[in-house]
Amino acid sequence: MLTDVLGVLVIARNGGRYEFHQDSKNYEPAFVASTPLGVSESHQLGSLLRSVYLTSSSPSYISSMNGDIVDTHELHIHAKAGGEGAVIFDSAIALLQGLYPPNKNNKILLANGTTVVSPLSGYQYVPIETVEPGNDRSLEPWTNCPFKNGTDNFQIYHAFGHKADIPLTEFIYRIEVGHSLLYSHPFTHWHFAPQNYAITSQKQWAAACSVGYHDPYLHIGSQQGASSTVFAACAAILFVGVFALAKYIKRSRAKKQYIHLADDEVSLGFDHENYNYGTTTANVDWPRREFELYD
User: Fold this and answer.
1) Which residues lie closer than 8 Å to 9 by C-beta, 6 or more apart?
2) Origin, by domain of life (predicted)?
3) Most exposed: 28, 85, 154, 164, by fewest CB within 10 Å?
């Protein structure tokens, strides 16, 4: 036995929109508008919801609701009023147009006997409540998000070391990943044009790393300062390498000389008149101990 549907909660995403951009430094969104395809998608969704919940032949029909003329006390519509412009609000309007299409019975009888039908052949106006991020985070979960707050403050926990270690962490991260990738943005199939993929939790990482600027250890005060530090380290390594290479080449090219010691001649019984103590050997074919000397 089927139970009657008393109500329904619908969570819908906005329809297709034109390309969406955010500022890479402060995440301020650019204005973006819905596409004709996007509002058509939202209207089709509204028509589908009408066929499921407001049509008497449907098994999920809500019998307590008026399916022809909207009763504003039976609906409560929320639309996120974030930084995406009017896209979400437009999508909500298009959905409601499909849910409650124009009806010529949407009219009023005046005292003088005149009947006035709502514009656009009985267009039905359904109130929409916009949700501001600063007032209600029900549709903006990132607002005062516990996860974000915990990520921003992760440096205070003992497991992650001390606050003074943050500049080194940022320094290594910028070398391995690169500054530009911190601010890459994701895209969804609702976008009219593709965007860059996101590789990390960029905003949280940027917020966490910002506390390390002007630290007394690495003295990295900005992205430019980090680049200067990298270049200085590479220059020092190059200088040491060139110096070591020069010494090696000089050693390998040095002229070899042979000397003999006095005890060589004495121990071997050579004539003492030809002693040549501690000097370079002459072209004499005699046994000797050889020592290599370099300039």
Assistant:
1) none
2) Eukaryota
3) 28
What is the structure's pLDDT at 36? 92
SS3 content of the chain, % helix, strand, coil (to 5): 40, 5, 55
Higher-scoring residue by pLDDT: 262, 183: 262
Round to whole Å and give the CA distance between 251 and 294. Answer: 7
- At 288, list the tokens: 């000797």
Q: For residues 68, 71, 75 and 79, what is the CA-based torsion angle, rounded to 10 degrees? A: 90
**For residues 220 and 168, what is the distance between their CA atoms, to the nearest angstrom?**
9
Ranges of H-type helices in the chain:
36-53, 87-99, 119-122, 146-152, 166-176, 202-209, 223-253, 262-268
Task: Name the more confident of 150 and 289.
Answer: 150
Residue pair 81/26 in contact by the 8 Å Cβ criterion: no
Token pair belonging to 215: 């630290």
Domain boundaries, the chain: 1-143, 146-223, 254-295
Which of 39, 37, 61 shows the shortest CA–CA distance to 49?
61
* More confident call, 255 vs 191: 255
Out of 61-65, 95-99, 121-125, 236-240, pick the least confident: 236-240
Interstrand relation of 115-117 and 107-109 (parallel, antiparallel or unpaired): antiparallel
